[in-house]
Amino acid sequence: MSIEAMVGISLGVFLIAFAFAPVGMGGGMLFVPLLHYGAGWAIDGRIIAASLTLTAVVSYGSGLAHRREGHVDDAIVKIGLAGAIPGALIGVVIVSLIGDNLDLVFKILSLFMIVWAIRKTISKMSTESTNGTEEVEPEDTIVEIPQLRVGSAIGGLLSSVLAIGAGVIYVPILRTFGKLAPRKAIGSSLHFMMAVIPVSILTHILFLPTESMERLASDLPFITGLAALTFIGARSGAKFGMKHLTEPRIMQIFLVLIVVVAIRYLIDIIGF
Question: How many Cβ atoms are within 10 Å of 249's Cβ, its own excluded?
């Protein structure tokens, strides 16, 4: 890899972490394309493990900042993890079974997931705009536990299959079925990732073939450096978002980011 490519990728991971941390996402939807197109890595178990590592760093860097500000609902997180962690384990098995066809399947699933998230986000934003106020958490609102667990399980599964934090799934699920306001949904989404992603990474590594494991080990210094930049970007982005961004603005940024990723994957799928 050239020096220019390494510098570009390093700058990219910092900016991705900075931009995604305030909106409750781990950045995996962009980490994978960055390593795929920038570093020339194939979409396989190796790139998934690397992307999930960077995504985990974002979740911890931003998640801890959100916890200090009280933007986490631990009871809802506990309910959701009962679905998310088993979902993540199933996702690893699916990746192993897909094998050489992962590239196309990965991009098609990503596109469907993003389109769903775009629809849910626009619908929620439209409702709040009509009401004229930001959504709050009514004390008498009943949490829809089965739907929350099923949605979280889907998020965990997609986290393992698509190498993402799955905030694009968790945030709408937490707002719709967990009845959380935007900032608390974001903080709780990050705490899902903090528990689910390490489980997914370790399981992926167990399934990696020897050759991929050796390549991943040789790239460890590079990945470690990227992880350090990711942590700095996530902490900076989270602090900036909580201080300077309103909740409607955060959701607007969230929407723009996932639309950009959707366009990128659509171009790739058409080109197959």
Answer: 13
User: How far apart (Å, rounded) are the C-alpha atoms in residues 159 and 48?
Assistant: 9
* CA-CA-CA-CA dihedral for 77, 183, 170, 101, to nearest 10: -130
Question: Poorest-confidence range of 44-53, 78-87, 124-133, 221-230?
Answer: 124-133
Residue type at 244 in one-letter notation = H
Q: Are 187 and 72 in contact (CB under 8 A)?
A: yes
Give per-residue pLDDT as tens, 51-76: 899 999 988 888 888 898 899 999 99
